[in-house]
Amino acid sequence: MSTFTMLLPFGPQHPMLHEPAHFKFEVDGETVVNVTPYLNYVHRGIEKLLENRTYVQGLYVAARVCGICNPSHTNAFVAAVEEAMGIEPPPRAKYLRVVTQEIHRIQSHLILLAVAAEEMGFNSLFMLIWRDRERILRLIEAITGGRVMQSYDRIGGVYRDINDILAERVIKELSEMRNRVIQYRKVFSEDPIVRRRTVDVGVLKTAEMVRLGGVGPFARASAVDYDVRRDHRSNHVAYDEVPFNVITREECDVWARLIARVDETLECINMIEYALKHMPSGAIRYRAPRAAPKGAEGIGRVEAPRGELVHHTISDGQRPYRHRIRTPSFANVFPAAKAHIGYSIADIPMIYVSWDPCFSCLARVTLVDIRSGTAKVISGEELRREARRRWEK
Amino acid sequence: MLKLFGEILGNLKRRPATIDVPFEKIEVEEIYRGLEFLDIDKCIGCGACALDCPAAAIEMVEFKEVNRKLPIFIIGRCVFCAQCEDTCPYEAIKMTREVPKPFFSFEEDKMKIVPKELRPLEKRPQPKPLPPPPPAKG
Amino acid sequence: MGEVILEAIVLILQIFIFPGFLFLLLMSFFIEWYKRKLFARMQNRVGPKYIGYKGILQPIADFFKLLSKEVIELERADNHLIDLSLLMASSIFIYVCFFLPFVGRPLISFEGDLIAVLLLTSAASFMLFAIGWSMSSPYGMIGGMRLLAQVIGFEIPYFILALVPAYITKSLSIFEIGRRMGSVLLSNPAYLIPWSISIPLFLVATQIELEEAPFHIPDAEQELVAGYFTELSGRRLALLDLAKDTQLLFCSAFMASIFFGAGSPFYQNPLLGFIMTMVEILIIAFFIVTIKASAARLAISNVLDMMWKYLVPSSALILAISLLLGGV
């Protein structure tokens, strides 16, 4: 039985997409039957650029993989390089890294919530969230020196210290932010029109999500209980000393994904307050060697706002011989494409926004078809084996 | 029923959150990484900053007045990452709070920061000549 | 003879200047400024600010700027039909405003003009659909079809609810309805029940007609770029903006006339009557903008559900109640 399907292209330029990507939706009436993503419009050759720069210079290139989550990339890069060099930052630097990681997670989740409101047509909520995000950006500027590009982690420590006045200011502003975020949570969870657009839309059950390899809040909203901060012990950030809850939800739909992110934002505020109050004193930076020994390998795994981010570096003396980045948006393309199937055209923007794609992070390789559904479960040893297999041929 | 109703109506009596930028100024924070400032007395011309700059935005240029090479910052290439400030062993480079203005020229010569005292002689402010001595009496 | 000539001159001035074309044009621009400024302030933004005092000349500036831009025509589209539909839509909306009592007696008024006005606005809404249909791009056609579904749905409750004041005041002329509404309500307080319930329902039907949130589906930016007006540019877009603004003016003034009597307490005093009409129009526009600012967008299936399951039966019920109370 052949059904006549219409091809609906969501081209590289479309008001729904905030970054260029191409999706071909095959629709039968109003129901989506198949999705084919064509990516790679923003490929900039970052991995090649990193091969020609020293580690000191490469830090800033790696940060520019993504505009929103650049501290995660910096952190993962530094983690990989510190592991390759075999050094560890001082304890105060580990806490400071927690502070900047969490504060950038707040602003990334706020971007997503505002964009979700905009896709729903809720223009006012978009404007209000953006106004409150401005406060976070000023705080980030006060701590790190840059509003969007933080460039705060350095190899061996962090850039600058936080003094007590600044810490008090951060805590005060964040407690005001907490009230605003609780108010937004009420709007997202109780407004009837928002609920009508998001509840029971784009459902992906837990088994499907695990089979297709989703990561981050996208997977945690489908009851996949995995968070790199809690489950991966690392010695470059102090997540083992700062208590926090991992937010999972049972509903597996778009509503759960948005609420999971709002709850994570509240958790971030708690974590920053704890970290600022319990910060050990001491140096913020150790003198790091300028080169890693030849052949040394390092893997940095961090929890970016969108999921699990991995940087893997193999050193060649001064420069990386090969630096491989696996971004969470890449892992989320497969389950996200599957989530569209069976729902109507009107739900396309909401499902699209709920997996929080960041195509700048994404452009590494070209994808062809989602039906083959490769399962990606990345573990450290597997990645090492795979990299060695490919580059020692 | 509509959850945002109360806040929307309340917003009517608040001042808009927009900063009217050409007419109002925005204060940058203390740690803001603006244009670079070079302290000539501390710089020894080692060139470590030029080696470490990720954007290749520092050129070491020979200056006869001080008898060594000094770094020139090419603003068109600089990403304001402050790596030069961290690398310099004598703390001669500081990132000021001066916000780089969006001047743009395709000639890189116009987009460089050159230390003030070392601009070409004609451009340096001329010292005021002393007044002539009073005519001798007697 | 001299009197006839004087009357003719006064009539011509009334048609072209006040309360005719010039006044309606300026009032449309003013209402667009009002809508944009209010919408912005509700979101803690500024709104138009620099052109004119507090930005009041901004819509005029936008109109003239759009008039001077190039019109990009599609090869496959039926360009004559697009231009014709646009002209018809904007002129119908301006024309129906002639039936409304802005100051004293409207320029055109006869027994039965309520029905004429309602039919003309249906025609205008259908013209907007024709714009989307004659553009062969998929965005335009899907947007046009969604608009048509919405228009078919809201027309019935709109008609029925507009007939409720007609039954209450036993008249089919907009001017008479407005004039008698106050006295009828004071003398028969039982009429307050259908009158007060039909006001919010009529507001919802108006919101659907204006395609404002939560019903701004034909303009679903995120899915369909801009729905039925995706491919309009230059003077076509200017004309469409003018049509939408005049539609807002008409809908607010219409609701003010038939439900609130638009200046009728001050029938003898034209200045006070005019001010009262303006105040009522601005208050109704305020409610329209408030709902627009505080709601997300419903999906087309939700809107159809709402219209056919709730709006149509309840409006028929209100009409039945008013008929029973009036004793047909």
From TrEMBL, chain A:
GO terms for molecular function: NAD binding; nickel cation binding; oxidoreductase activity, acting on NAD(P)H; quinone binding. InterPro entries: ComplexI_49kDa-like, NADH_Q_OxRdtase_suD, NADH_UbQ_OxRdtase_49kDa_CS, Ni-dep_hyd_lsu, NiFe-Hase_large. Keywords: Iron, Magnesium, Metal-binding, NAD, Nickel, Oxidoreductase, Translocase, Transport. Fe cation binds at residues 69, 361. Its cofactor is Ni(2+); Fe cation. Residues 120-293 form the NADH-quinone oxidoreductase subunit D domain. It holds the Pfam family Complex1_49kDa. It comes from the Archaea. The keyword Repressor does not apply. Mg(2+) binds at residues 47, 325. Ni(2+) binds at residues 66, 69, 358. The keyword Lipid biosynthesis does not apply. Belongs to the complex I 49 kDa subunit family. This is NADH-quinone oxidoreductase subunit D.
